[in-house]
Amino acid sequence: MRHADVIHPFSRNRRAFWRRDRVFMAALLICFVVGLAGLAAATGWRETWAQIARLGPAQLLGLLALSCVNYLLRGLRWHVLARRLGLPLSVERNVIHFLGGFAMIVTPGRVGELVRMRWIARETGWSFDRTAPLALVDRAADLAAMAAILAVVAMATATGGKMALAVAAAGLLAAWIVTHPPLLRALVTGLHATIGRMPRLFGRARRAARAMERVVTPRAMLPVMGLGLLGWLAEGYAFHLLLAWMGADIGVMRAIGIFVFATLAGGLTGAPGGLGGAEAAMIGLLALEGVPMETALPATAIIRATTLWFALAMGLVAFPLAERQSKRGRDVLEAD
Predict the structure, then answer these.
(1) What is the pLDDT of residue 7?
(2) Residue 220 and residue 117: Cα distance in Å, rounded?
(3) Mind listing the pLDDT tens digit for each residue in 1-49?
(4) Which of 31, 100, 143, 247 could form a disulfide with 322 if both were Cys (CB 3.0 to 4.6 A apart)?
(5) Which residues touch 226 (CB under 8 Å, ≥6 apart)?
(6) Membrane-spanning residues where (predicted)?
(7) CA nearest 299: which of 68, 57, 71, 50?
């Protein structure tokens, strides 16, 4: 298949989309900073800055290092899934694709991260319906890993047990549904029979469901789940260290549980990057644990800066690398 025949959603007006997304991300960052500044002013600047002053460069580098562990492990997971799908790309290329996608992490619904599919299409000639299972299983693996962590935390701490277990069970069920090829094929067939239109679209959806069968096997999903669990535990542990350094040690299990639950809650709001929802959930849960506002507020701001916004920074660095790499791959593909 020639590259010109590949169909993907990013083939037109790429520069306009990129300019719009940069403006959108800048606006979100400004809103994030202004909102936290307002809360800090209401809480008391002196108390807030006193807590931030507890952290030195070594502590901040430690938080960023644990975030790097999370993103690199999940990048390796992306490579495992890509190879299982049959993509003939090296680990370096796949990891750059994965990290570069974070440049779009605060786009609505995170759909901007599908830019990874465009890079793959350029380098391999694979159409979107063939690579769609990669993005879907990657998202489902995150959901399943976080749900599993929540379940363990709920059982270990015996606090908020039923609610946390219910959320964990719902997350695991949702992850199973979206990665169950027979069920997806049945849903697509049923929708096509009901609507009776767009046969090409439904045909691509059925091909995507068939392609997923190569990925969601027990042999493939075991390392996928393991890498996701380790990655999210690394960031949760970073939150525990941050709270301890700020004099609010609530225990490693509770800290990890609050971080994971808040991240999930933010994602469920549908807001770009979970902005607003994740911060509100984190501050609220810390308050329930008896953490004073002058500590909960800066702790939330710092952990979000060293996770979400750090991921965005990594994506902005990797994005041009992925662009150049994919264009070279396209030139080679077209020459062949």
Answers:
(1) 40
(2) 21
(3) 444 444 444 444 455 555 555 565 566 656 666 665 655 555 555 666 6
(4) 100
(5) none
(6) 52-73, 163-179, 220-243, 255-275, 295-321
(7) 50
